[in-house]
Amino acid sequence: MRPRQEIVETFSTFAQLENDKFSKWLTDVRLRRSMERYLQNSPDTKHLVEPAVTGYFWSLYWYKVWRLNPKLSNLAKQHLSAYLQETCYWAAGKILARFNINQYGLADYFQMGIAELEKILEGYNPEKNSSLKTYASIAFPSRLKDILRQGKEADICTNWGLLRKVSKKLVLEALDNAGLSPTQISQYRLAWTCFGMLYLQNQPDGTQKLPEPNRQLWADIANLYNSERHSQLNPPGSECSPEVIEERLTKTAIYLRAYLYPSVASINIYNQEEDTSQEFEIKDPLSESLIAQIIAQEEAQERKNQLSQMNQVLVSAFGQLDQQSQTIFDLYYQQGMTQQQIIQELKISQPTVCRRLLKGRDSLLAALLNWRRETENISVNANQIKEMSAALEEWLNINYAQSGLRISSV
C-alpha cells in the first residue's frame, strides 16, 4: 500500500482494492475541497510540518467536529474514514491471516471494518488514548473479531445481510449521500422498514447465509408497503409492485456499499458535483475555537517525548524477562500465533504459556507504573492503573508487535 504523504490526500482519498489487494487511492473531490478550504483558513497550523504531528492535529480536529457540531458531523466522519483507511487495511490483513474463513478475503474484512467506524469513534477518548490512529489499530481488529464471533461475517457480503446489519440512521445517510430527493428517501426508507418487518425478524443470527427472498415474500412486502404508505408517506405516492420493491431495496444496498466503502462509481458522482460546493460554504461556528484549543506543536512534541520515554521504559523492562517469556511474547504478539500454536511450537504446556504471558505482562505494567510515580511524583490510583494497563496493551499490539524487537539479540 503506497503511503499517503500530503495532509490533503490523507483526509480525502480512499483505498481501491482489486484482486483482494490495494490498487490505488481514489480522491473524493468534496473532501479534497474541504481540507484545502480549512487549511487556507487555519494559518495557525502552518508550523505543523511533521506528517505525524499534522495528521494527529487534523484527526483530533475532525473528531471534535464530529462530536460537537451536528451540522458538519457527517463531513467530519468522512474525513476520518479517509484518514483511517490504512489502519483498517492492515487490521483486515491481520484478521485474514489469523482466521481461516475461505470465502472471505481482504476486501471483505476491510469493508466490514469501515462499516464499524462510528462505533470506533464513539469508543475513542482523546484524553485517555495516545491518538485516534493508535486506538483504531486496536479497535478495528477487536470489532472484526466480535463480528466473526457473532456469526455476522457470513451475511455481510450479501445485500440482505447488509440491509439486516445497518441502522435506520445509516440507511438515511446513504440515501441522502446518493443524491435522492426527500420524497424518494421516504419511499426507500419505508420499503426497507417493511422488508425488515416481514423478512429479517424471522431469520436466525447464525453463520448460515441469508436465503434469497422468494416471489411470495416480495409480494407480501409490496402489500405491506402499499397499505402503510398512506400513513407513513406525504404524499403517499402510487402503489408499488413486488418488482419495484425489490429494485428499491437492491439499490439501497448498493447505496449503502458506496457510502460505507467508496467505489469508482461514487467518486464519479462527486466529480459530477464538482461545480456545486455549497456544502462547504457552511460556516463552522466551532472552527476558530477548535483551532485554538487543539494541541499546539509544543504540546504535541511533549506527548511525543512522553511516548518515547514510555517506550524506553518498556524496552528495558522487556529485556529483564527470562528468555522463554521473551520467546512466547514474540510468537504471540509479533507472529500472531494463538496459545495453542505456541504450545505446539515450543512443546510446552498451556499453563506455562498462560503463566509466562500473565507474569510478563505484570512485570511490564509494574515498570510502567514505577516510571509514572517517579516522573509525576504521585501515588498511582485505580484509574491510573487502568490507563497504564491500556497503554501497555497498545504498546504490545502496536509498537512491540510491529517493531521486530529481539531483546535477546541486541
Automatic annotation (TrEMBL):
User: Keywords of this protein's UniProt record, alphabetized?
Assistant: DNA-binding, Sigma factor, Transcription, Transcription regulation
Sorted alphabetically, the Gene Ontology BP terms of this entry are:
DNA-templated transcription initiation
Q: Name one GO molecular function term.
A: DNA binding
Establish whether keyword Nucleus is in the entry: no
Domain RNA polymerase sigma-70 region, chain residue ranges per copy = 317-364
> Does the record bear DNA-binding in its keywords?
yes
Q: Which Pfam families match?
A: Sigma70_r4 (PF04545)
Q: Which InterPro entries would you find in this protein's record?
A: RNA_pol_sigma-70_dom, RNA_pol_sigma70_r4, RNA_pol_sigma_r2, RNA_pol_sigma_r3/r4-like
Q: Which PANTHER family match?
A: RNA POLYMERASE SIGMA FACTOR FLIA, SIGMA FACTOR F FLAGELLAR
The name of this protein is RNA polymerase sigma factor, sigma-70 family
Q: Which organism is it from?
A: Cylindrospermum stagnale PCC 7417
